[in-house]
Design goal:
heterodimer; A: mainly alpha; globular; B: 370 residues; alpha+beta; Beta-Lactamase; Heat Shock Protein 90; 2 domains; five-stranded antiparallel sheet
Chain lengths: 505, 370
C-alpha cells in the first residue's frame, strides 16, 4: 500500500504539530472579557486532553492487532487501560490533586519528607517514560513502512525529531487545547472509517468473524470469540497478571499525573477522571471492530506478523479506489497524532525530571531542559531500534507493570496509610522496581523460555505488585520511629475537601 | 609527603578534621528543622559517630526523642536523667547506681548529660552513655551539645524570619493605597446619577476587592484567585481612566492552580498603572501574561510608561528607596523566602522604554500550600 494520500496525511499531521509548537495557540484577552482569563480548565476539556495524551500507538494500533491475532482474551488490554482510571478515581485523583504535587517525585518528597525517595521516584519516572516511549517509536516505524515502504527506523526517527524540535522551539507547553483536539481527531479517525467498513461488511452478508479459519496460537474459528479458550499455557495467570498491571499501573504514568495539576481542586480532579472513563470507554469500542473485520478481510496480516497494521490497511483493502485511500489516510493521520501526542507528553515529563534532578545547577534552565530532552528521546529511540519482536501493546503493558509495581504502592499507601516511612517506601520501590525491571529486560531481550518461568517473566505484575506492597508495609512497620513529623497534617490536607474551612498549615 | 602529598587530602589530622566536619554537616540539616522526634531520629546517628561512644540519646525537656547505639534497655531511663542536667549549661556525669541494669556485661556504666540551650532556655538534653566518663569524652559531649544548641538556635531564627514575613504581609494588606480608595470611590460617585446600574456593579466589585485584600488567613493563594482580584482592581481603574487605560491579558489556563504568595501581583499591577500614566498624557497600555514553562510558571507585568532609571529600581528592590515603588521589595523578599533565591523579581526598564516585571514561580515547592 503506497498512496500519496496517506503520505500527505502524515505530512499534514507533522507540520501541524510543528506549527502549533512554534507559534502556539495564544489567546489574548482585552478588558471587555476580563473575567474569562482567570477561569480554570473545565473537567470536560481537561478530560479530553488526558484522553488525547493517553491514547497512544498501543491503543490506536496495538489493541486491534492483538485482538486480531489472539482473540477476545486480549480485550483485557483496553478494559484494563480504562479501568485503571476507575482505580485512579476512587483511590488517588482527589487526594493527589490536593497534595499540590506537580509530578510523582514531588508527591513522594512532600509525603515522606525525604530527598532520597524523591531521587528514586525520579529514576523510576525516567525508566517508565522510556519504556512507554519505545513502543511509540516502534509503532511509528511500522506505520510509516506500511504507508511508504521506508525502513522501520525512519518513522521512529521522524517522530523523535518532531518532538525534539518542538521542545527546542519552546513548544508543547500550554497544550491543553491541542491535546483535547487530538482526542477527538483520534476518535474520528477510527469512527468514520469503521462506519463505512461495517456498511460494506453488512453488504457482503455479515459473515461472523468467528467463521474465519485463520489464526495463531489456537485462536481459531469459534475459539477466537471466547476468552480463556486458547491453548496458551497458564492463561489464567497471565490474564490476572495483566489485569493487575493495567488496573494499578495507570496512576503511575508520569504524563497522566502531570495533567491532573491543571484541575483547580480535588472535586474537579474526580469529575475529570469520570469524564476520562467515559471518553476512553467510547474509544475502545472501535479497535475490536477493526480486529473482527480483519479476521475476514485481512487474515494474511496474522500469518505475516503485521497484525498491528490492521487499522491502517483495512480501509484500503475493503474499499477499492479513492474512497478507501481517503479512509486509510484518515486512520494514518490518527495514528501519527497518537504517536506525536503521547511521545510529546512523555518526553516533556522525562526531560523535566532529567533536567531538574540530574543536571544540577551547572547548566542554565533552558539549556538543561534541551539537553535533557535530547537524552530523553535518544535513549528510547535507540531501544526501539535495538529491540523488536515485542508487539506495541505488549511493550506498553510492560511499562504499566513497572508503574504498578512501584508508584501504585507508593501512592496508595502514601495517601491511605499514615504509618508509611521513607525507608519503607525506598525498600518497596527498590523491590518492585528491580523485580519488574528484571522481567522487562528479560522479555525485551527476547530470551526463549518455557513453562512457568516464561509466564512469570512475560506478565510480572501479579507477583511484583504484592511483593512491593508487602515490602513497603513490612519495612515501614519496622522503622516506625522514622515516620515523618508532618504526616498527620499532610493527610488532613489530602482528604479534606477544599471548601471545608480548616487550618491546613 | 612532599610532592605527592599535595594531591592528597593532607595529613592524618587534617583528614580527621575533614571527617568530623563532614559528619557535623550531615547532622546539621535535620536539626535546622527544630528539635522533634523525627529530626532527632535523623541526626542522632551522626552525633554518635562524632562522639564515638556506645550509645547516645536526645531528649526534650520531659521525654526521650531518639536513641542510637547499644544497650537499648537503658533507653527508658533517659527521661529520669533529664533531671540531672545542669541548668547553667555544663555537663553532669551520672554514676552507675542511678542507671541500674541487670546485664553484668553492659557497656553502659556512666552517663553524661548536657542540656541543650536556646535563647537561655533549656529545650532538651544530649545524653551520652559510655563505660567510663573520661575527661575527653565529657569535653567532647559538651562541645557537641553546644554545637547542637547552635543549630537549634538557627532553626529558631528561621522560624522568626517566617513570622516576620507574615507580619509584613499583614502590613501590606493594610497598605492598599488611600489614593486608590479615594479615586475609586470618586469614580463610582460620578456614575451614581448617570449610570446607577454600573455604579452599583462597581461598588460590589470594590467590596469584593477589599474583602480579598483584607483576607485574614493564609500566606499563599492560587494564581487564579490573585488574577481575579487584579481583574477587579483593573475594572475599578478603568472606571476612572476610561478608554485611556488599555489592558491585555494572556493567561495559560494550565498555570492557574499555581500557588503564589498572597498579594504578590497586586503591587506590581498597581505600579504598572501608576507608571503607565505618570508624566505622560494619552493612553497607557498594560499587558499581563502568565505562561506555562513545564515546572515553572512565568508571569510578566508590562507597561508602556516612562520607565525608570535601573539604579533606582535596584535601590527599590533592596528596600533602600524612601517612597519608591510600593511593595516591590516586599514582593521580591516574599518570593525568595517562599521559593528560594532563584525565584526573585526581574525588572527590565530604562527611561522612556516602559517597565517589564517578570515573576518566576515553581508549580511545586515543598512546604507551600494554602
Amino acid at each position: 500500500m503506497s498512496t500519496g494520500l496517506s503520505i500527505s496525511a502524515v505530512v499534514v499531521v507533522v507540520l501541524a504539530t510543528l506549527a502549533i509548537g512554534t507559534w502556539g495557540l495564544r489567546f489574548s484577552r482585552t478588558t471587555s472579557d476580563f473575567f474569562v482569563a482567570s477561569r480554570t480548565v473545565r473537567p470536560r476539556l481537561n478530560a479530553s486532553a488526558i484522553g488525547g495524551e493517553y491514547l497512544s500507538a498501543a491503543s490506536f494500533l496495538g489493541v486491534a492487532g492483538l485482538v486480531l491475532a489472539y482473540g477476545a482474551e486480549m480485550l483485557w488490554y483496553p478494559v484494563g487501560w480504562t479501568a485503571g482510571y476507575l482505580v485512579l478515581l476512587v483511590l488517588v485523583a482527589a487526594p493527589l490533586r490536593r497534595s499540590g504535587a506537580y509530578t510523582l517525585p514531588d508527591f513522594a518528597e512532600t509525603r515522606l519528607e525525604s530527598r532520597a525517595v524523591r531521587l528514586v521516584s525520579s529514576l523510576l519516572v525516567v525508566a517508565i517514560g522510556w519504556l512507554y516511549l519505545m513502543p511509540q517509536f516502534q509503532g511509528a516505524g511500522l506505520a510509516l513502512r506500511t504507508v511508504t515502504g521506508s525502513p522501520p527506523w525512519v518513522g521512529g526517527l521522524l517522530v523523535a525529531a518532531v518532538v525534539v524540535i518542538n521542545v527546542f522551539t519552546g513548544g508543547m507547553r500550554s497544550v491543553t487545547f491541542v491535546q483535547a483536539f487530538q482526542y477527538w481527531l483520534k476518535l474520528t479517525a477510527l469512527l468514520v472509517p469503521a462506519f463505512f467498513l461495517l456498511l460494506i461488511w453488512i453488504g457482503d452478508g455479515a459473515t461472523p468473524p468467528t467463521a474465519a479459519e485463520t489464526g495463531v496460537s489456537g485462536a481459531l474459528g469459534s475459539a477466537w470469540g471466547l476468552p480463556m479458550t486458547s491453548d496458551q499455557p497458564y492463561v489464567l495467570y497471565t490474564t490476572y497478571s495483566l489485569i493487575m498491571a493495567t488496573f494499578l499501573g495507570t496512576m503511575g504514568l508520569p504524563h497522566v499525573v502531570v495533567r491532573f495539576y491543571t484541575n483547580p481542586d480535588g472535586r474537579a480532579a474526580r469529575r475529570t477522571t469520570l469524564v476520562v472513563l467515559a471518553l476512553l470507554g467510547c474509544f475502545y469500542v472501535l479497535p475490536p471492530v477493526y480486529a473482527a473485520l480483519g479476521r475476514l478481510y485481512a487474515p494474511d496480516l496474522i500469518t505475516s506478523g503485521h497484525s498491528d497494521m490492521v487499522v491502517l490497511e483495512l480501509p484500503a483493502r475493503m474499499i477499492s479506489g479513492y474512497g478507501g485511500e481517503l479512509l486509510s489516510a484518515l486512520t494514518t493521520a490518527g495514528a501519527f497524532a497518537a504517536f506525536l501526542s503521547t511521545s510529546s507528553g512523555l518526553s516533556i515529563a522525562v526531560a523535566g525530571v532529567l533536567s531538574q534532578e540530574f543536571t544540577g545547577r551547572r547548566l542554565a534552565g533552558v539549556t538543561a531542559f534541551r539537553i535533557a530532552a535530547l537524552v530523553g528521546v535518544a535513549v528510547p529511540l535507540a531501544l526501539a531500534l535495538l529491540t523488536s519482536g515485542v508487539s506495541v501493546a505488549r511493550a506498553v503493558g510492560l511499562a504499566f507493570a513497572v508503574a504498578a509495581s512501584t508508584f501504585c504502592p507508593l501512592l496508595v499507601l502514601g495517601i491511605w496509610w499514615r504509618r508509611l516511612t521513607d525507608v519503607g517506601a525506598l525498600a518497596g520501590l527498590a523491590v518492585g522496581g528491580v523485580l519488574s525491571g528484571v522481567a522487562v529486560v528479560d522479555t525485551l531481550s527476547g530470551a526463549e523460555r518455557t513453562g512457568w518461568t516464561d509466564a512469570l517473566l512475560a506478565q510480572p505484575a501479579a507477583w511484583t505488585v504484592p511483593a512491593a506492597f508487602v515490602t513497603m508495609i513490612g519495612v515501614s512497620l519496622l522503622t516506625q520511629r522514622r515516620r515523618p513529623v508532618g504526616v498527620g497534617r499532610f493527610l488532613v490536607r489530602l482528604h479534606t475537601p477544599e471548601a471545608v474551612p480548616l487550618d491546613r498549615g | 609527603m612532599g610532592l605527592f602529598g599535595r594531591n592528597q587530602l593532607g595529613s592524618e589530622s587534617d583528614r580527621a578534621t575533614f571527617r568530623t566536619l563532614h559528619t557535623a554537616s550531615l547532622a546539621s540539616p535535620p536539626l535546622r528543622g527544630g528539635l522533634t522526634r523525627s529530626t532527632a531520629e535523623r541526626s542522632i546517628r551522626h552525633l554518635r559517630s562524632l562522639l564515638a561512644s556506645p550509645a547516645v540519646a536526645l531528649t526534650d525537656t520531659v521525654d526521650l526523642l531518639a536513641w542510637d547505639g547499644k544497650a537499648q534497655h537503658h533507653a527508658p531511663q533517659t527521661a529520669e536523667l533529664i533531671e540531672h542536667a545542669d541548668d547553667s549549661g555544663g555537663p553532669a556525669v551520672v554514676e552507675r547506681r542511678s542507671i541500674a541494669c541487670d546485664d553484668p556485661g553492659c557497656v553502659v556504666r556512666r552517663a553524661i548529660v548536657v542540656p541543650l540551650v536556646v535563647d537561655e532556655a533549656t529545650v532538651g538534653t544530649l545524653q551520652v552513655f559510655a563505660p567510663r566518663a573520661s575527661a575527653g569524652l565529657v569535653r567532647a559531649t559538651t562541645e557537641v551539645a553546644r554545637w547542637v544548641s547552635g543549630q537549634l538556635e538557627l532553626a529558631e531564627l528561621d522560624a522568626s524570619r517566617t513570622r516576620l514575613i507574615e507580619a509584613e504581609v499583614r502590613a501590606l494588606r493594610a497598605q492598599i493605597s488611600p489614593h486608590f480608595i479615594y479615586n475609586s470611590l470618586s469614580a463610582i460617585a460620578s456614575f451614581v446619577r448617570t449610570d446607577p446600574e454600573r455604579a452599583r456593579d462597581l461598588l460590589l466589585e470594590f467590596a469584593d476587592f477589599t474583602r480579598y485584600s483584607f483576607r485574614e488567613h493564609g500566606q499563599f493563594t492560587t494564581l487564579a484567585e490573585e488574577l481575579k482580584s487584579i481583574e477587579r482592581y483593573l475594572l475599578l481603574e478603568k472606571a476612572r481612566f476610561g478608554e485611556r487605560l488599555q489592558v491585555t491579558l494572556r493567561v495559560a489556563p494550565e498555570v492557574l492552580p499555581v500557588r503564589v504568595p498572597f498579594l504578590c501581583l497586586q503591587p506590581l499591577v498597581e505600579n504598572a498603572v501608576r507608571h503607565g500614566f505618570e508624566g505622560k498624557s494619552g493612553t497607557g497600555r498594560i499587558t499581563i501574561i502568565a505562561e506555562d514553562y513545564d515546572r515553572d510558571c512565568v508571569i510578566t507585568v508590562e507597561d508602556d510608561g516612562t520607565g525608570e532609571e535601573p539604579e533606582r529600581v535596584r535601590l527599590a528592590l533592596a528596600g533602600a528607596l524612601e517612597g519608591g515603588s510600593v511593595g516591590l521589595a516586599n514582593v521580591d523578599e516574599r518570593l525568595r523566602v517562599a521559593f528560594g533565591d532563584d525565584y526573585g523579581l526581574v525588572v527590565e526598564t530604562a527611561p522612556g522604554a516602559g517597565t517589564r516585571v517578570i515573576v518566576h514561580v515553581p508549580k511545586f515547592s515543598p512546604g507551600v500550600h494554602p
